[in-house]
Each structure stands twice: as C-alpha cells, then as structure tokens.
Amino acid sequence: MYRIKLNPNVNYELPAVATIGNFDGLHLGHLQLFKQLNLLASQYTYRRLVITFEPLPLEYFSDQKKKLRPSRLSLLRDKFKFLRDNNLADELVVIHFGQSIANLSPGQFIHNLLKQDLGVVHVAVGHDFKFGKKASGTIDDFAKYGLKTYDMPPFYLNEYRVSSSLIRDFASNNKLDEVKKFLGHNITYTSRVIYGNQLGRKFNVPTINLSLGLNCPALWGIYIAHVYIDGICYNSVASIGKNPTVSTVDNYKLEAHLLDVNLDLYGKIATIEILEFMREERKFDDLDSLFKQIYTDLQMARDYFMRKAEINGL
Q1: What is the pLDDT of residues 253-302, one digit of tens each?
Q2: What's the chain's average pLDDT?
Q3: Residues 6+ apart with CB under 8 A from 116
Q4: How many C-beta neighbours within 10 Å does residue 74 have?
Q5: How far is it, in rounded angstroms, from Cα 255 to Cα 238?
Q6: Beta carbons of 11 and 86 less than 8 angstroms apart
Q7: Cα–Cα distance, 73 to 165 (Å, whole number)
Q8: What's the rounded Cα separation, in Å, for the pair 208 and 210?
Q9: Residue 198: which residues within 8 A CB-CB, separation 6 or more?
Q10: What is the distance between the alpha carbons of residues 67 and 160, in angstroms, rounded to a whole number?
Q11: What pLDDT digit, counting tens, does each position of 105-156 carry?
C-alpha cells in the first residue's frame, strides 16, 4: 500500500470517509460518488480517501490465467491528477493487488485495511460493490463491522447505465463523441516520457514515448491529440498500438509527435488528451510507405488545428 497526499491543508488525524474502486476512466458515475464523498466529509468533518488498486483486480486475475488483460481508459497518474486538480479527495490510497489481498475475507479487509491502517469510519460505494475473497463481501458487511455506509444507486445517461465497461465498448469502436459524453471529458493517458527506438528522428518526425507498463489502452489507432507537459499544451498526432511496421515485440506503445516542435522531453510527465480519430493502425510494406502516410497524417492534423483556431477567432 502507498498513500499519496493531495491536500496539504487537511488534518490527517481526522477519521476518514472512503470510497473504494477501480475508477477506470473517472466517468460521470464516479464523479457522482466523489461528490457524495465530499458531502459526507463536510457533514461529519472527515478526511476524504479514495482507495484504488494496482494492478486492477481483473488485470491480476487475467495475469494469473495468462490471458489478455482488459483494456484501460486511464492510468494511475490520471486518477491522481483528476482527484488533485478537482479537489475531490485529500488522499489517494493505492493498494497493490496480489494474492495476499485477494485472499482477505471481507472482515479482514474491513478491519485490517480500512479501520486499522486507514482510520476509515464511513464508506461510500456503488450499490453493487463487491470485495474480499472471491468477491464475497457486500455493502452489508461494512455495517456488520461497524462502519457507516452510503450506497450509490446506478447513474444513468440517455437511458444507459454509465459504466467503465460501456465506455470501453465505445472506445474500442473509436466512438469518441460517445466516450466523451459518458466520461464527461476526453480520454487522457498520463505517464513518464521514456526512450523509444528514435526511428522517427531519422525521418524528421521525432516522437515522445509514454510508459504504459503492462497496461492495455482502450483506444487503438492514430489520433489528433493535445499533449500537456509542464503546463504547456502542444498540438500533436498520437499513435496507440503495436507499431507493426517496425516492431515485432508484442506490447503496447503510446507515442506522440508534437507538431512543429522538437524538444528534449525525456523523463518528463506528459498527458496525452485524445481529440479525434484519424485512421486505424496498419502494417506498411516499407518505411518509405509508412512515413509517407505519417506526413499526410501530420498535415491533416495541422489543418484540423488551423480550422479550430479560425472557429475560435485566434
């Protein structure tokens, strides 16, 4: 477990109200839960905890079965930024999900982690929240072990129940307007800039590469994007996939070319905000064909940002 303090002004000796979950994508339903967390904290003078897991439980169990991990709408740093920037929590608690956590009974999870380690006295979770060994714990177990509870009813938009799985389905089909509608914002991925193969530099198209670890992004293809680094927004083209033309390694890559900018950004924390779908990723016969298409992509992105600037009167 590691704990990330988000609010230097809070008294961390106060009892806590906590919400617990994967919070993948930080969608409109999650936002309703965070708002309730804040109402309870204000009403009872609690400190506000958001508890999540790394890896996510489904990812851990997929790894154990040697199956493909489910895709992600957001990374851990995105959760941290969203909570901090919107002042939604005082502390983000990240529990490393492994066999020892998976084997905890509901009572052990509540007593050892929530009450003893974190000082939780009140929980706010979704009405169908499950936890503990074999997902045997329900919201009734919190009251059984002396915690006050608030169970959040499902949140609907346009007759759809808002959920991460629904939004992943939209994302897998690049329905970005629907993704934004149900998230309440564009998909972002925030991570550290790492070294790539530097092939793009040889063709005058340098890229920044973001570390994904074992995470599988929900989007796949070539996109118009914004990249935020040190408070500066750069117009960009982003690629999410496996770079089949130049790579035989079966892992996921997230990279972006900052339009008409060439900076040394290694080691920086970058956020890539996906704006528009351009095309699917595909394997080209040779590098010349690949980069011919890339130059076309870059010009399409420049035209897109120019039109946006004209519409906004800039």
Answers
A1: 899 999 988 888 999 999 999 999 999 999 888 888 888 999 999 999 99
A2: 93
A3: none
A4: 24
A5: 6
A6: no
A7: 10
A8: 7
A9: 206
A10: 29
A11: 999 999 999 999 999 999 999 988 999 999 999 999 999 999 999 999 999 9
Per-residue model confidence (pLDDT) at position 153: 94
Token reading at 282: 């595909």
Print burial letters for 210-243: b (CB count within 10 Å at least 16), e (below 16): bebeebbbbbbbbbbbbbbbeeeebbbbbbbbbb
Strand partners, 237: 224, 257
DSSP calls for the chain: -EEEE--TTS-TTS-EEEEES---S--HHHHHHHHHHHHHHHHHT-EEEEEEEES-HHHHHHHHTT-PPPPBS--HHHHHHHHHHTT--SEEEEEE-SHHHHT--HHHIIIIIIIIIT-EEEEEEETT--BSGGG-B-HHHHHHTT-EEEEEPP-EETTEEP-HHHHHHHHHTT-HHHHHHHHSS--EEEEEEE----HHHHTT---EEE--TT--BS--EEEEEEEEETTEEEEEEEEEE--TTT----S-EEEEEETT-----TT-EEEEEEEEEEE-----SSHHHHHHHHHHHHHHHHHHHHHHHHHTT-
What angle separates helix 164-172 from helix 176-183, to the nearest 10 degrees?
Answer: 160
> Radius of gyration of the chain from Cα atoms?
21
**Residue that has been written with the tokens 């790394």 in this structure:** 54
**In the predicted structure, residue 244 carries a pLDDT above the cut 80:** no
- The structure tokens listed for 225 are 């994007």
The model's pLDDT over 69-105, given as tens digits with 9 standing for 90+, comes to 999 999 999 999 999 999 999 999 999 999 999 999 9
Question: Residue for token digits 């996906």?
Answer: 274
The partner residues of 271 in beta bridges, in order of sequence, read 190, 228
The predicted model scores a pTM of 0.93
- Give the tokens for residue 312: 């906004």
Q: Which amino acid is at 142?
A: F
